[in-house]
From TrEMBL:
Protein name, entry field: Lysophospholipid acyltransferase family protein
MF GO annotations: 1-acylglycerol-3-phosphate O-acyltransferase activity
Organism (species): Thermocoleostomius sinensis A174
Family matches, as Pfam families: Acyltransferase
Keywords: Acyltransferase, Transferase
Domain Phospholipid/glycerol acyltransferase residue range list: 33-154
InterPro entries: Plipid/glycerol_acylTrfase (IPR002123)
């Protein structure tokens, strides 16, 4: 069976996407990495794998593991759908930690599903959820880096293939699906992927996380990643 990286490269070729990668030398070569990126398209996971030239195990929305054809696609890409809400966080931490302990790359889209179901501008980034920061600080791994990456689409096409309410059949727990309108599908034609400076998790941060400064260290780490991605996007669109 082809690797997720090869499938990703073949998909981009099939779609005719022109991909330009910046700062690829920043990708850590021999360590566990947590890839954090902005998110607007179903193409983001394959795009990031092709950009860093490495298979990435992405956490994806619960409904993607419930829709038959979609489930096969994301599984072949190496993604792991999140569980239903009552067990989602615990299972995410468990699966992601196991992958990182074997020095694999794990990918997270901390904006969540919002920009996938409500079309946003290519230079907009929503507020980041903090789950990835908790994961990085909890994982018992000595050489773990968070790698912020910006996806900057300079030419794209958009269709609306199905109504949002269709997804509520597969995941009724998601309020974003319980609204009128159609699900946008963004296809990149010309896209820059800008790799940020890796953020290495330190023993000091982990010690603070286990104490009274836990909320502060999580907030600072989340903000640092979002700021880096914002900066990279501005640089791409101003160049």
């Amino acid at each position: 069976m082809p690797s997720p990286l090869l499938i990703s490269q073949q998909l981009l070729t099939l779609m005719g996407t022109r991909l330009f990668v910046h700062h690829q030398d920043r990708v850590p070569s021999d360590s566990a990495i947590l890839v954090v990126s902005n998110h607007r398209s179903f193409m983001d996971a394959p795009l990031l794998m092709a950009a860093i030239d490495r298979s990435i195990r992405f956490a994806c929305h619960h409904y993607m593991g419930q829709v038959p054809v979609l489930r096969e696609f994301v599984t072949r890409l190496g993604c792991f759908p999140l569980d239903a809400p009552d067990q989602r966080q615990q299972m995410f931490f468990h699966q992601a930690t196991q992958l990182l302990q074997t020095r694999q790359a794990v990918g997270v889209f901390p904006e969540g599903a919002q920009p996938m179901v409500q079309l946003t501008r290519p230079d907009d980034v929503g507020d980041f959820q903090r789950g990835f920061a908790h994961l990085a600080l909890r994982a018992p791994i000595t050489d773990l880096a968070i790698l912020p990456v910006a996806i900057a689409s300079h030419a794209e096409s958009t269709t609306s293939p199905f109504p949002l309410k269709l997804l509520s059949w597969f995941d009724p727990s998601e309020p974003l699906f319980n609204q009128a309108g159609w699900h946008p599908m963004v296809v990149y034609e010309h896209v820059d992927v800008l790799i940020g400076r890796p953020i290495w998790i330190t023993d000091t941060q982990r010690q603070r996380y286990r104490g009274k400064q836990a909320r502060t260290v999580v907030s600072n780490l989340t903000s640092r990643c979002q700021t880096e991605i914002d900066y990279l996007l501005r640089h791409s669109f101003s160049a």
